[in-house]
Automatic annotation (TrEMBL):
Organism: Coprinopsis marcescibilis
Taxonomic lineage of the native organism: Eukaryota, Fungi, Dikarya, Basidiomycota, Agaricomycotina
Top-level taxon of the source organism: Eukaryota
InterPro entries xrefs: C2H2-ZF_Maturation_Protein, Znf_C2H2_jaz, Znf_C2H2_sf, Znf_C2H2_type
Pfam families linked: zf-C2H2_jaz
Residues spanning the signal sequence: none
A single GO molecular function term of this UniProt record: zinc ion binding
The protein's name: C2H2-type domain-containing protein
Amino acid sequence: MGRLRRSRAHHARRDVHRASRTRARVKDLDQIQLIDLDPKNRAALEAQPLDYEKPGLAQHYCVECAKYYETDHALNSHWRSKVHKRRLKDLKQPAYTIEEAERAAGLGREGKRPTTTTVVAAAVSEMEVIADT
């Protein structure tokens, strides 16, 4: 008796990983918030010249999702979809800043002791308030 079926030990992990490496990247939320949603840039993106290399000749573009669509009907149905509405909800939250990322990594000033110059400056300002009264 031989083997009845082929062993599937790797579960196609290699192929999934390879596909994720070569998949086209889309713009991140902070790039869209800071660059594309600026009124000047938004107007330029919505009124692009004809481009034969892009889907729909670059005439049907969703700025919030950074995607091109083939027809106006496809773009309108995308605007009504859950995917677009979720992206709008995500874009309403403020973008992460470098300072916020540093605080999350523990590099910020929040939990550290104040330096001597800030302590002296605070004491001087308190003395000025007392002297003014």
